[in-house]
């Protein structure tokens, strides 16, 4: 609204006229329709009839223009600042970046994805489309920073659950891989919570280096129980395989244990079946044929890939 209306008011009897606050003169507003109204006649009236009022009007009008220009400049600066910020990438400590890293780490852990997924072109394009300001870290950042952070969160949660359990049952075994020649000693826990709901989780899994003696396994048990702060008194039973080293290890560790029923049954069936010469001979033939098929598949695959490389 123009500053000139500080010195005029609309005529109550005719909206086409304005009344001067000083001399009460009627001044035309510039037409017969509201769309054609202006303030030129009002300003001219002040300039010709009231010089002091006109000078005050000019000063007030200039101040209003300066304020408007200042606000416009400020808005322009804010818009430029916001536009620049939107183009800048988040740093690794930004809350939004940390939240996205956490979700990606959960995806890798829960879906059994490799760390190399963060370097896949389509995956990085997808994340960039969803959040253009996010800069994808390398795989080492996820393995060295994000994974330990997620581990600490899960560890604290499981530790609290176990601390409230009065009695816990365990299963353990040493698993050996025929591919990578790595042996793993694992331990899972099962217990009932206050609502009588079954809880279970894999507490520990570590490389079992050297000979799998009872002494080595006992030492590993001590480390696991000490890490999770589980007293031996709260152990209900440890279900293990029938191997002598596992039986001796649980005995030396001082916890009750039982052999796995499924493993015992499998050993009985296996020994009974292999004692029959016809079955043993048939299995030997099948193993030979399986080895031949695997070798043939590898040869064909190698030949196909080599031919494909030459074609490309």
Structural summary, described in words:
The protein has helices spanning 40-49, 51-87, 95-110, 121-130, 139-163, 214-227, 244-253, 261-274, 277-311, and strands at residues 8-10, 17-20, 26-28, 168-176, 183-192, 198-207, 235-240, 257-259. It has 312 residues and is of the alpha/beta class. It folds into 4 domains: 3-84, no CATH class; 95-157; 166-259, 2-Layer Sandwich (Nucleotidyltransferase, domain 5); 272-299. The strands form 2 sheets. It has a 5-stranded mixed β-sheet with strand order 6-5-4-7-8. It is elongated.
Total separate domains: 4
Mean pLDDT: 84
Total count of helical runs of at least 4 residues: 9
Write down the secondary-structure element order: EEEHHHHHEEEHEHEHH
Shape field: elongated
> Can you tell me the CATH superfamily of the largest domain?
ATPase, nucleotide binding domain
CATH class of the largest domain: Alpha Beta
Fraction in helix: 40-55%
CATH names the topology of the largest domain as: Nucleotidyltransferase, domain 5
**Major sheet description:** 5 strands, mixed
Radius of gyration: 42 Å
Side by side, the strands of the main sheet go 6-5-4-7-8
Q: Ranges with pLDDT <50 over ≥5 residues?
A: none
The proportion of residues in beta strands is 15-25%
Write down how many β-strands occur, each being a DSSP E stretch of 2 or more residues: 8
From the N-terminal CA to the C-terminal CA, the straight-line distance is 74 Å
Architecture of the largest domain in CATH?
2-Layer Sandwich
Instruction: Indicate the structural class.
Output: alpha/beta
């Amino acid at each position: 609204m123009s500053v000139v209306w500080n010195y005029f008011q609309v005529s109550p009897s005719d909206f086409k006229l304005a009344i001067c606050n000083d001399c009460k003169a009627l001044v035309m507003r510039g037409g017969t329709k509201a769309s054609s109204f202006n303030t030129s006649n009002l300003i001219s009236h002040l300039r010709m009839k009231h010089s002091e009022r006109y000078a005050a009007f000019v000063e007030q009008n200039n101040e209003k223009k300066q304020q408007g220009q200042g606000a416009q400049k400020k808005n322009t600066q804010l818009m430029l600042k916001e536009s620049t910020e939107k183009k800048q990438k988040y740093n690794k400590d930004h809350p939004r970046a940390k939240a996205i890293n956490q979700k990606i780490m959960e995806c890798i852990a829960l879906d059994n994805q490799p760390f190399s997924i963060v370097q896949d072109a389509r995956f990085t394009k997808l994340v960039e489309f969803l959040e253009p300001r996010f800069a994808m870290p390398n795989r080492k950042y996820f393995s060295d920073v994000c994974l330990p952070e997620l581990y600490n969160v899960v560890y604290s949660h499981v530790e609290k659950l176990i601390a409230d359990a009065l009695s816990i049952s365990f299963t353990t075994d040493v698993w050996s891989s025929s591919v990578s020649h790595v042996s793993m000693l694992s331990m899972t826990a099962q217990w009932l919570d206050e609502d009588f709901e079954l809880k279970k989780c894999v507490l520990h899994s570590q490389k079992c280096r050297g000979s799998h003696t009872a002494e080595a396994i006992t030492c590993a048990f001590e480390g696991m129980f000490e890490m999770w702060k589980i007293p031996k008194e709260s152990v209900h039973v440890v279900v293990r395989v029938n191997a002598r080293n596992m039986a001796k290890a649980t005995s030396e560790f001082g916890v009750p244990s039982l052999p796995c029923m499924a493993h015992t049954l499998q050993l009985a069936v296996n020994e009974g079946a292999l004692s029959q010469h016809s079955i043993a001979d048939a299995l030997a033939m099948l193993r030979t044929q399986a080895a031949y098929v695997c070798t043939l598949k590898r040869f064909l695959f190698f030949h196909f890939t080599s031919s494909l490389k030459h074609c490309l």
